[in-house]
Amino acid sequence: MFNPDLFTVLELTKVENPNLFPFPFELHIGFSIIAFLFFMVRYFFDKRPYQLILSFAIPFSMTLWLSENKVWFYTVGAIEFALILISIVSDIIYKIKHPELKAEKKSKEENSAEKKAE
């Protein structure tokens, strides 16, 4: 039987372990660098704790390339999940401790609505 998916597999120049990541190492490292820089710049301006947590959580996923051990794979997954939960909780706590952010956001929305009305 003819399988048209065969041609797409033949076009790949480098096949990575699809169980680990569906994209190559070079793309993963590029994504991690961009994510790290993005969250560090945002942390520099906003000083929100979740930005600092995520700036290290995303590049931490690069440790999966060190070993193909399933225990390590699931350990990194659990750590990443915990870091995402910690970043969500820290943002909620940050918003509770800084109610002036809500007032600033509301005033910005009112100013933008007034500008649109003009």
Q: Number of domains in the coordinates?
A: 1
Number of helices: 5
Portion of residues within helices: over 70%
- What coarse outline follows from CA principal-axis ratios? elongated
Count of DSSP strands: 0
Low confidence ranges: none
Structural class: mainly alpha
Average pLDDT across residues? 80
SSE order in H/E notation? HHHHH
Distance N terminus to C terminus? 67 Å
Largest β sheet strand count, sense and barrel closure: none
The Cα radius of gyration reads 21 Å
The share of residues in extended strands comes to under 5%
SSE topology sketch:
Blueprint: H1 5-11, H2 25-46, H3 49-60, H4 70-97, H5 100-117
Question: Could you explain how this protein is built, in words?
Answer:
Helices cover 74% and strands 0% of the residues. By secondary structure, it is mainly α. The protein has one domain. α3 (49-60) packs antiparallel against α4 (70-97). The longest helix has 28 residues, at 70-97. The chain is elongated. The chain starts with a helix and ends with a helix. The mean pLDDT is 80.
